[in-house]
Structures are given as structure tokens and as C-alpha cells.
Write a structure and sequence with these properties.
The complex is a heterodimer of chains A (about 200) and B (about 300). In chain A, about 35% of the residues lie in helices and about 30% in strands. By secondary structure, chain A is an alpha+beta fold. Chain A has one domain: Nucleic acid-binding proteins (OB fold (Dihydrolipoamide Acetyltransferase, E2P)). In chain A, strands 1, 5, 6, 7, 8 and 9 form a six-stranded mixed sheet that branches. In chain A, strands 2-3-4 form a three-stranded antiparallel sheet. In chain A, helix 3 (about 130-150) packs antiparallel against helix 5. Chain B has seven helices and 16 strands. In chain B, strands 7, 8, 11, 12, 13, 14, 15 and 16 form an eight-stranded mixed sheet that branches. Chain B has a five-stranded mixed barrel with strand order 1-2-3-5-4. Chain B has a two-stranded antiparallel sheet with strand order 9-10. Chain B is about 25% helix and about 35% strand. Chain B folds into three domains: about 1-65; about 70-160, OB fold (Dihydrolipoamide Acetyltransferase, E2P) (Beta Barrel), CATH 2.40.50.140; about 170-290, Nucleic acid-binding proteins (OB fold (Dihydrolipoamide Acetyltransferase, E2P), Beta Barrel), CATH 2.40.50.140. Classes of the chains: A alpha+beta (about 200), B alpha+beta (about 300).
């Protein structure tokens, strides 16, 4: 009995780390083998799950619709592109009015820019509108997964960390600060919300 | 002392076909090792069994009992392992093959596992709801799922006490990252005992049939580390999406297209976090219960936890 290929896990990665990535690779020579984006914190990502605020959307297509969305998290901006081959995601982008919290499941895509740099974007499998609680949960989860990757970064058996050191020589301490900063931001907005509630009740 | 006596009786039973032992003499040898020489009971038992094996000219494998592992039914993770269990017959199923005498679910404190007894083993039948001491079962593995087989050498003893059968339902949580094809409003084959989902109006077993509408979701929960495939049946799909089967049929009728139902479900559920609970069946967790994880997060606690990673 042939084994169905196992589904690739959707990595949780903040926009800043995602955009710092540029190196892609395959684990086998098979033409249809999955392509992985190497994350600077030492993990391979064939799929990502992210939740953030859709701040802008634009149809950048010429003949056909080709939607670009900017999705912001506490550390930076994800670029999401959806065209005729992602009809559901494209129609969601068309219909959504920014600003809106959205959840995106998608595949990392890289392309070289004219000046030789590498841009990273997300080709969505799905985009759905979600609420603030889902977004906060994602921030906590992304911070946690990022810190776990950093925790395993020095492990000798961690081949993707080794690869990341060779490809990026990443400033791991900065990613740690970034992840903790994202959580501190949530904590502060909690306090703001709490004091806003207190103000509101004081007015009555 | 009673403990040693029980062990002694077990050993006598194990050798009953081979040696004429009395519980008292076996207990004396155990007692000597345990109380005189401070040997742990398990080791003492092993040593006594070994000496009787020598006496009877037997290999350890020839014996039931004694050498067998005692592993919880839900904790079996080895193929062809010999086991002794005390278990309750939770369910008896209809055997699908003439060679199978009985098939069903056995349960103990750790959970449940499937069992099979074959006609050729010529064993007394088990009754649903009854607790038995079953010695000399052997484990079997099929596609990562474990079961136990009764065989000719299995001893079956009724046990008077009841067992609280453990709940071995899987609990998985994560973001719902995909709703797969074959979800939403589907049609099933109406033939007796066939619930296959129709593909283009055809059942893979019964050909072209007039299907019956049903709802289900084949979803994927992903926590960033592992991926779990889960199936919501009609009841849990209705609870998850707030759309009843009747409403789903109306939607499909209006649109002249059944796929609108799954599309609507995707819009309402993808990207949200859920925790589901239910038995694992093959690669799927069959959802008995689920909850949306939507409480406001405790940012301060999350921060404290994160700093400790």
C-alpha cells in the first residue's frame, strides 16, 4: 500500500523573520518534491499560517485580477498575492474592506528583485476574516514557536539551524527580543483596554 | 503473604499441563527468595519459573502467563507482544468473516482496543459487559493501529468485579487550516450497511444509486508542530457551522450547486482555533466534542511563559 504523502505543517513565523528569509531548497530531486523556505531561526517552511491586520489591498493585475494584500503583525508586514489560480482567496481579498483581521494559510514564495535581493511573499490557500481574539492567540502562538525554534537553535542535531547559520548568520538574540516584544505589545494593549474600561465606567 | 500465594497459584496454573505442583511448595520457594534473600517479587517469580522450566524441559516461550507483559490496552505499541489483561468486553461487533468467531472492543482503565477471536481457536464466547481475566493474548498491528488476538492457548476467566473503562479519546487542538474535498453537503450510498460517500452519484461498491444527503467536514487542525486530520459528523458539523442539513440543502438548491455549502463553511471556520476530542480511527480523529478556542488570551501569563523558554 502506498503511503499518502504527509501534509506539510503550517509554520508560525512573524513577518519580520519571514521577510528576512530568502533561501529555498528541496529535500529530494523529485520534480514534485515540496519546496521549503529556510527560516532564519532554523526550520523549514513549506506552508505558513498567519493572522494579522489587512491594511491595504490592491488589484495589481493587468488583464486578469491579481490581488495584493498587506497584512501587518506586531513585527512587520506580510505580502499576500492571489490571482486566478487562487480564486477563493482572490475573491475574499476583493470583498474585504481594510482594516480587517484576517487569517491566511499559504505557501511561501520567493522572487528575485531587479537589484538582486530576494522578496518573500505568501501565496494563499485560504484567507478568512477572523476576530481580535484569534489574532491575539496567533501572536502568542507565533511568539512561542519562534522561541522554541531559538531554544533548539544550538542543538547539534538541528540541521536547519546549521543551514540557517550558513545561509544567514542570523542575529538570534534579535528574534528573541522581537518575539518577546510582540507579547509585551499584547500585554500593554490589555492594560490600555482595561484602563479604557475603567475610564468608561468612571464616566457613568 | 497473600500476594505471594497469588503468584504461587499463577505459577501452578502455568505449569498445570507440565508439572504437578502445589501452591504451597511454590509459595515456599518464592517466600525464601523474597523474605530471606530480599529479592524483589518479580525477580523471584522469574527465577522460580525458570527453575520449573528447567525441570519440565521447556522453553519460556512454551509457557503462557508468567512471562507475558502487562500493558494497558490503550498503551499497546508493539506488534506480536504476548499479554495478560483484565478487561471488560465493551462491545461485540458482527464478524465480517466466517473465520472470525468474535470481534469487538475490550476495555480496561487505560482505554479500549479491538479484539478478535478466531473460529479455529475454539474458545468459549465472551459476553458483552462482562469482565474477564484473559491470559496469553497476542498483539497485532495494522497500519499503526493495534489490536489483540485471542488464540488457542488463551485462558479466559470470568472476573466478578467491574472495571471503569478509561477514556482514550484523543484531544487535539490547533488552527483549522483546511477543509478538504468531500466536505460539506455530501451524498451517501443508501444500501444496507453501506455508508460510502458517492462520487458523481456513484458508490464504489454499488454503482449508480439514489444517494442520501448528509453533512460532514474533513478538516485539518494544525498547531505549528503537528497536523491532525479530523472528521466532524453531521451533528458536530451542524454545531460547528450553525448550518443544519435542511438549511444546507436549501442553500445548494438556491445555488444549483452543492459546493456552496462547503465554501460557506470554510468562510465561517477556517483560520479559527479549535480543540476537538474523539477516538482516533486510522488517520482521523472522529470528533465527539469540540470547542472554539476564543477566550481572550492572558498576555501577561503568556509573556511569563515565553520568557522561560
Amino acid at each position: 500500500m502506498s503511503q499518502a504523502p504527509t501534509r506539510e505543517v503550517a509554520r508560525r513565523v512573524f513577518a519580520r523573520e519571514f521577510n528576512d528569509a530568502s533561501h529555498t531548497f528541496k529535500e529530494s530531486d523529485d520534480e514534485r518534491a515540496p519546496v521549503y523556505l529556510l527560516l532564519p531561526t532554523g526550520e523549514r517552511a513549506n506552508r505558513v499560517f498567519l493572522v494579522g491586520t489587512l491594511t491595504e489591498k490592491e488589484d495589481v493585475g493587468e488583464d486578469d485580477e491579481y490581488w495584493r494584500g498587506r497584512i501587518v503583525d506586531p513585527t512587520g508586514t506580510f505580502f499576500v498575492y492571489a490571482g486566478q489560480y487562487q480564486p477563493e482567496a482572490a475573491s475574499t481579498l476583493r470583498d474585504l474592506e481594510p482594516p480587517a483581521y484576517v487569517a491566511v494559510v499559504g505557501k511561501p514564495r520567493t522572487y528575485e528583485t531587479d537589484d538582486g535581493g530576494v522578496n518573500v511573499s505568501v501565496r494563499p490557500e485560504s484567507i478568512t476574516a477572523v476576530d481580535a481574539a484569534t489574532r491575539d492567540r496567533w501572536v502568542v502562538e507565533a511568539a512561542r514557536r519562534t522561541l522554541e525554534r531559538l531554544d533548539a537553535f544550538e542543538d547539534e542535531s538541528n540541521e536547519y539551524a546549521r543551514m540557517a547559520r550558513e545561509e544567514y548568520d542570523p542575529a538570534v538574540e534579535e528574534y528573541r527580543r522581537m518575539a518577546l516584544g510582540a507579547l509585551e505589545g499584547l500585554d500593554e494593549s490589555d492594560e490600555l483596554a482595561a484602563s479604557a474600561d475603567a475610564d468608561a465606567s468612571a464616566e457613568h | 503473604m497473600t500476594d505471594l500465594h497469588t503468584h504461587a497459584e499463577d505459577i501452578v496454573a502455568q505449569f498445570s499441563d507440565h508439572l504437578d505442583l502445589t501452591a504451597d511448595e511454590v509459595e515456599e520457594r518464592l517466600d525464601n527468595l523474597v523474605n530471606e534473600y530480599r529479592v524483589p517479587v518479580d525477580e523471584a517469580r522469574r527465577s522460580v519459573v525458570n527453575s520449573y522450566l528447567d525441570e519440565a524441559g521447556l522453553e519460556r516461550d512454551a509457557l503462557g502467563g508468567g512471562g507475558n507483559a502487562s500493558v494497558g490496552l490503550a498503551e499497546i505499541e508493539q506488534d506480536e507482544q504476548w499479554l495478560d489483561v483484565t478487561a471488560k468486553v465493551v462491545e461485540l461487533w458482527e464478524p465480517r468473516s466466517d473465520s472470525v468467531a468474535q470481534v469487538g472492543l475490550l476495555g480496561d482503565e487505560t482505554g479500549t482496543t479491538k479484539f478478535v477471536a478466531f473460529e479455529t481457536s475454539d474458545l468459549p464466547g465472551l459476553e458483552e459487559g462482562q469482565v474477564y481475566r484473559l491470559e496469553n493474548l497476542v498483539t497485532d498491528e495494522y497500519q499503526g493501529n493495534f489490536s489483540v488476538k485471542l488464540n488457542r492457548t488463551t485462558t479466559i476467566t470470568e472476573v466478578a468485579e467491574d472495571i471503569e473503562v478509561g477514556d482514550d479519546a484523543e484531544t487535539v487542538e490547533g488552527a483549522l487550516v483546511d477543509i478538504q474535498s468531500g466536505s460539506g453537503l455530501i451524498k451517501r450510498c443508501p444500501e444496507d450497511d453501506c455508508t460510502r460517500v458517492l462520487q458523481n452519484g456513484r458508490c464504489s461498491e454499488h454503482g449508480s444509486v439514489e444517494g442520501e444527503f448528509d453533512l460532514r467536514i474533513k478538516g485539518v487542525l494544525d498547531d505549528g508542530e503537528t497536523v491532525h486530520e479530523v472528521i466532524f459528523d453531521r451533528e458536530s458539523t451542524e454545531a460547528l457551522t450553525g448550518t443544519t442539513l435542511g438549511e444546507a440543502k436549501d442553500m445548494a438548491m438556491d445555488a444549483l450547486d452543492t459546493t456552496v455549502v462547503a465554501d460557506e463553511m470554510r468562510t465561517g471556520t477556517l483560520g479559527r482555533y479549535y480543540r476537538v476530542q474523539g477516538p482516533q480511527f486510522g488517520r482521523y480523529v472522529l470528533v465527539d466534542e469540540f470547542e472554539r478556542l476564543n477566550d481572550p488570551i492572558d498576555a501577561e501569563a503568556a509573556l511569563i511563559e515565553a520568557r522561560s523558554i
